[in-house]
Design a protein that fits this description.
homodimer, about 350 residues, alpha/beta, 7-stranded parallel sheet, 11 helices, about 30% helix, globular
């Protein structure tokens, strides 16, 4: 559908739908975020959104609050469901029974159990359907769900911080702090709406991170890649503040594995592939645990493996206005001032000043 | 001066002055770019700019074309000159004699021979002066001149191209082409308005570059850092298409030096400092040759030395939407799609997608 095929009114209501859907962020996973608005003669009769995993769908929420939905138009960002065998009954029959005349949908459901069937059932019963209104925005909203429902493996976000000269740390290994406080806060927020976070054992040994959302919301499941099971019992990621899973070699210390299991730590045993844990298999296992999104936060070896195996879906790179070059500590790195950024074709030209 | 201290009219005319000044870009070095507008009752009487090194100053150009400058206001981006001992007579006496009532100036002349004296002389003779109108823009326009006139060494621009994951080349050394065609064109344009360009001998040996402006304007002087005088006689930078200077160790092959000199190649002999040519001394020597601006274009060893010695004034970093990671050739690097950039405090957050 071309952009011009939908009206300003369509756009206005669908924007509201997306705004409503976002209220479920971090609470509905691995379900999609869905919002719904019921409209008659340009007036909003009721609204709804999917509030928590297992809770009523957005369409049902909106219908429940609507006194007279007969001949009204329903706006919803995802194709209404028509399948059974899940926590809540399907929405399509309820929409048909309500007397709704028309459904405006942003994107079809990529779930093979729906995948256009919802729309077909509505049409058969005489409910008009308009699809692809603000589809791009709707797809971005549910990028995690779309990947997960299709592949049963999590949507992988690689998060890195680089200096302007492309360094993640100094030669002596210092990386505190390349990115600004606000950037780190952004990462904590991201963690609160992501199912799991992954780092390698070297990051655990070196930085002893907590890998929580630092009070910004729910904590993600912590996944540690630790081939040789080197993790110390006293480390922060074993503090029980949130669930931790250690991915380790089939051959690593069996006694330590049992001890960790008794502490409530999850253990995933993996075969090796090129001397590195088989992370493709790990993603399949995490997917089976309903982990639909995963942030990979480093270090460099881990990032390299995910990139090499083409397992990264999205990058989030913080580029920080410093030149590390051969500086020993990040805090002594040269600050680049008065930075301007210009887009040149697909490149970004950073201009800035030193010694000012 | 606060921004509010100048009027919309001041801003309008000073913008025109800066636009005129820019017409001299690449032609007036090591002089500053200067534009001038003469205005009476809000109407432009005449305009001028400094067209070429040794040519008349902008103020004189504008006065020459102005029929009746009496009681008019002159706008000029740099304080008018008052000193002798240079190619053209000073502007201040000519402004005073013309009957101009007021001079609006963007920035004082950092040249110690002027440095406020021009303004003082105007005031003594009853010409009003308003200084610091659009000072920031005017200083940026003449950043090269300002550095050079104060230090007698060139303004150094470090130009680099990085992949999003901070690489300048693949592990096997391939770097063709990280940046887009348009970005490379931007660099050629930059070369045409810069006095000199510098690379290390390894870049010459590996890429055999021409280091010209590729038809975009005048060619910069080519400066090659070549400690051991390894340069082959057949290489492109010795093609005579533009001036080339080789900076080499005092101890390198004397016979080869003489042969190169006979070919018209400049030879600068330098002592070593930490096994690297003393580039601080090189900048002093280049400054003496009226080279007021220098682009350092790599490779990495050269860039590192300039950064380490804190000799870089400005960076121009092209960040290209590719992930090189462990790819062997740049052309096989993963493209990052649908990139968005958001400023978070002083950091830049790049988001983008792989496998789409």
């Amino acid at each position: 559908m071309k952009k011009t095929d939908y009206t300003d009114e369509d756009r206005k209501f669908m924007q509201l739908v997306i705004k409503l859907a976002k209220k479920g962020q971090g609470k509905v996973s691995p379900n999609p975020m869905v919002g719904c608005v019921i409209v008659k003669n340009g007036k909003i009769l009721s609204t709804g959104y999917h509030k928590y995993f297992g809770g009523p769908h957005a369409e049902v929420e909106a219908l429940k609050k609507c006194k007279n939905p007969k001949d009204a138009t329903m706006y919803v960002n995802l194709e209404p469901c028509c399948h059974y065998n899940k926590k809540t009954p399907p929405c399509v029959p309820q929409i048909i029974n309500s007397g709704i005349k028309k459904v405006v949908i942003a994107t079809k459901d990529p779930n093979p159990a729906v995948g256009g069937k919802g729309i077909r059932q509505l049409k058969v019963k005489g409910v008009k359907c308009k699809v692809s209104v603000m589809e791009k925005e709707a797809k971005k909203l549910n990028e995690t769900y779309i990947k997960y429902i299709k592949t049963k493996t999590p949507f992988v976000i690689l998060k890195m911080a680089y200096s302007l000269d492309g360094k993640t740390k100094t030669e002596s290994g210092d990386s505190k702090w390349l990115s600004s406080e606000k950037s780190r806060e952004t990462v904590h927020q991201l963690r609160s709406r992501t199912d799991a976070i992954l780092v390698g054992i070297n990051t655990v040994l070196k930085d002893n991170p907590k890998l929580t959302s630092h009070g910004k919301g729910k904590n993600p499941v912590r996944v540690i890649l630790d081939t040789g099971l080197k993790i110390p019992f006293s480390t922060n990621v074993l503090n029980g503040k949130s669930k931790t899973i250690i991915a380790t070699s089939i051959n690593s210390n069996r006694v330590k594995k049992e001890k960790l299991k008794k502490m409530g730590i999850g253990i995933i045993e993996l075969p090796l592939k090129n001397n590195f844990l088989d992370i493709k298999k790990l993603l399949v296992k995490l997917g089976k645990m309903s982990i639909s999104s995963l942030i990979v936060e480093g270090g460099e070896t881990v990032a390299k493996s995910f990139l090499k195996e083409k397992l990264v879906d999205k990058i989030m790179f913080f580029i920080c206005p410093k030149i590390i070059n051969s500086t020993e500590y990040v805090k002594n790195a040269a600050d680049v001032k008065n930075i301007s950024v210009e887009k040149i074709e697909e490149d970004f030209l950073f201009e800035g000043y030193l010694n000012v």
